[in-house]
Amino acid sequence: MALVARIFIVLFAFVLACLAAAVVMNFALLLPAWTDLFDQPVDQQILAVTIGLSAALFSFYAVLPAMMIIALAEGFRLRSVLFYMLAGAALALGLAYGWDLRLLRGGDDDLGGRGVEIMAAVGIVAGFVYWVIAGRSAGAWRKPPAAVSVSAPK
Question: What is the pTM (predicted TM-score) of this model?
Fold first, then answer.
């Protein structure tokens, strides 16, 4: 029963982490045009739709690799915030740039040369949000190993 509850907590934390990542991504992309936004107010519905679509895309692309990382963390009871933040950054960069690491050095990406920083920030925030909700208690659903009592021979 504890495992079923843990699965729901993990899925809920993953969805909220994707939502937080979408918020960071949208505001990072809006930041260069922030002065223009004050001249013309942003329609809140458009912002909500872009955040929702971004969260849906993040969760669609990241679900399998993230669940592998989460299963690893649950199995080894990894509870370090640093682990989740680094894993989130590596996952976001890996999903954005793939195996071609030469793209990480290039300055001409679709995000105005700031793509590596934005994707790393997106992954770090997602990893932190996941850790706050579910990562701090990774592996707690498992029963601790039984204590082995060694008795001296009589």
Answer: 0.84
